[in-house]
Amino acid sequence: MAEQPKHRLLVKHVTGRVLLDTGKTGESFTIQDGNGDTRLGEGEGSWKVRITGVTTAAAAEINRLRAELNLFHFIEQPDAERPVRKWWMYGKHRHPEIVEDAGTAELQITVDARVAYSNDAV
Amino acid sequence: MINIYPEASRFRTDLDWLTSRASFSFGEHYDPDNTEFGPLRVFNDDIIGAGRGFGAHPHREMEIVSVVLRGQLKHEDSTGRKAITGFGGVQRMSAGTGIIHSEVNPADEECHILQIWMTPSESGLTPSYETSSFDPEAMKGRLLPIVARGGGEGISDIHQDLTMYLSRLDAGKSLEFRQDAGRRVYLFIIEGSLSVNGSALQIGDAARITEEPELTLETAGEQAFFMLIDLP
């Protein structure tokens, strides 16, 4: 079976501090738009990121800094020659909505903007 | 009150293409007691290697000023703006509701910049970018405004109630600056040495100043090249 692309989510504070990196700490995550669709568009709308396995400390810090969060969704291709696909998700017109469920170690972050970016299209 | 932050207290990043000294928490350098001074969030002193730089990355709700001290800095952003700036040039980007940009040294020599981030006084701004240039001769012996709300001739506009000044002061000279009540002053030494109300500062040192109505900036045996930011 061909190796599958790896999805990675980073949650960063506005000045670059990494608050969560699934590539390093192994949390699983899903992203859906406001209609529950996983075929994600871009621009303005609603996107809900559900992350499971988040430590209480990480969730608390993300919640504390919710007004200044940047989320990054990367798809890293198994073929190193192919560039990483990158999306930036953030609160454009309103702060991200955060829902913590300590019982299931799930954190939900809902943002209103999703933008693809690359060095070729600055 | 004058709080001195010595050069050695800055966060250090040394890569094969970047030498960076951060005066505030930045990236993986984190000190919860050193994250801001009023709206000032980032003050990075960066030397970027030839042909290298920061690839495409986003910003939101931040005023970002890059002052080129040596070499050249090339900017491109998602609004379609491109610019190359050298010494005497200032780039101001208002990230507003979101912008993607890159910053690269396009030349075959090092590029030395100060990059300064400020929280804007209003949110939801349309992203924008501008460059301005000043005459380096004009900062000799005086405080030359290079960034200020409302802009002006040789002055970049910024969405915050602040003014950034540059000055080059010969040895044995002095300047006065009046700090209005409730204002902050951030002072950074780019070259040489300087004293502020008797507190000595060397190259790379900074001072965060509050409640000092009169500031006397003096050089002794050597000249000083410095930045002063008057901010809320």
Short descriptors:
heterodimer; A: 122 residues; 2 helices; B: 232 residues; mainly beta; Jelly Rolls; seven-stranded antiparallel β-sheet; globular
Can you describe this structure?
- The complex is a heterodimer of chains A (122) and B (232).
- In chain A, 11% of the residues lie in helices and 48% in strands.
- Chain A has helices at residues 22-25, 56-64, and strands at 6-13, 18-21, 28-33, 43-52, 69-76, 85-90, 97-101, 106-117.
- The model of chain A has no long low-confidence stretch (mean pLDDT 92).
- By secondary structure, chain B is an all-beta fold.
- Chain B has a single domain (5-231), classed as Jelly Rolls.
- Chain B has no helices and 21 strands.
- In chain B, a hairpin with a 2-residue loop joins strand 17 and strand 18 (199-202).
- The two termini of chain B are 15 Å apart.
- In chain B, 41% of the residues are buried.
- The model of chain B has no long low-confidence stretch (mean pLDDT 97).
Short description:
With 122 residues, chain A is mainly beta.
Layout: helices, strands, pairs:
The complex is a heterodimer of chains A (122) and B (232).
Chain A: E1 6-13, E2 18-21, H1 22-25, E3 28-33, E4 43-52, H2 56-64, E5 69-76, E6 85-90, E7 97-101, E8 106-117
Antiparallel strand pairs in A: 1-2, 1-5, 3-4, 4-8, 5-6, 6-8, 7-8
Chain B: E1 2-5, E2 11-14, E3 18-22, E4 40-48, E5 53-59, E6 63-70, E7 73-77, E8 82-85, E9 89-94, E10 99-104, E11 111-118, E12 128-133, E13 144-148, E14 156-157, E15 163-169, E16 174-178, E17 184-196, E18 199-202, E19 206-210, E20 214-218, E21 224-231
Parallel strand pairs in B: 13-14
Antiparallel strand pairs in B: 1-19, 2-3, 3-4, 4-11, 5-10, 6-9, 6-11, 7-8, 7-10, 9-12, 13-15, 15-21, 16-20, 17-18, 17-19, 17-20, 17-21
Mean pLDDT of chain B: 97
What class, by secondary structure content of chain B? mainly beta
How large a portion of the residues of chain A is in β-strands, by DSSP E?
A: over 45%
| Biggest sheet descriptor of chain A | 8 strands, antiparallel
Which outline of chain B best applies?
A: globular
Please state the CA-atom Rg of chain B, rounded to the nearest Å: 17 Å
| Helical stretch tally of chain A | 2
